[in-house]
């Protein structure tokens, strides 16, 4: 019996599109300032107006960090989700701390590793996945200034090498 494949209905296409990862905010500075070791996906406990503001695509992770308290709970600090324009007196505070939803074992590992000197937990990306707000956090080690310069030099050298190889391939085709 032949199966129908590669033919998606409009409803299946709509579901696939809604299930896809919709990035709201990225912390590009974190990848420059830190050496990323482990990444984790955490849920976010949000209020209604925060979700609506995120759906409008407005958020910033620039000055954000993750803190683990004595009770074994992870909190996202300093993330800016602007006030929802259509909100009323129920609107949220833009930079309030927000609870991260992680497994107890993940929180324990993060707390243990981040206690070491030079390690911290930083948010990398804020996104919707299957309708739920998620944040990608990373255990990161701070880079020295010379490390940052070295990374930029290496990236520039790789870019130059790629350009040279592309030019050589173009010449070879002629």
Give a quick rundown of the structure.
The protein is α+β, with helices and mostly antiparallel strands and 174 residues long.
Describe the oligomeric state of these chains in a short phrase: single chain
Strand neighbour order, sheet with most strands: 1-6-7-2-5-4-3
The SS-based structural class is alpha+beta
- Separation of the first and last Cα atoms: 49 Å
Shape: globular
Return the CATH architecture of the largest domain. Beta Barrel
CATH superfamily placement of the largest domain: Small protein B
How many DSSP E strands? 7
**Tally of domains:** 2
CATH level-1 class of the largest domain: Mainly Beta
- CATH topology label of the largest domain: Small Protein B, Chain: A
What portion of residues belong to β-strands? 25-35%
| Percent helix | 25-40%
Q: Provide the gyration radius in Å.
A: 21 Å
How does the SSE layout of this entry go?
Elements: H1 10-19, E1 22-26, H2 28-33, E2 34-44, H3 48-55, E3 65-68, E4 74-77, E5 98-101, H4 104-114, E6 119-129, E7 132-142, H5 145-173
General description of the model:
The structure is a single chain. The protein is built from 5 helices and 7 strands, in the order H-E-H-E-H-E-E-E-H-E-E-H. It is an alpha+beta fold and 174 residues long. A 7-stranded antiparallel beta sheet has the order 1-6-7-2-5-4-3. The chain folds into 2 domains: 20-143, Small Protein B, Chain: A (Beta Barrel), CATH 2.40.280.10; 144-174. It has helices at residues 10-19, 28-33, 48-55, 104-114, 145-173, and strands spanning 22-26, 34-44, 65-68, 74-77, 98-101, 119-129, 132-142. Helices cover 37% and strands 29% of the residues.
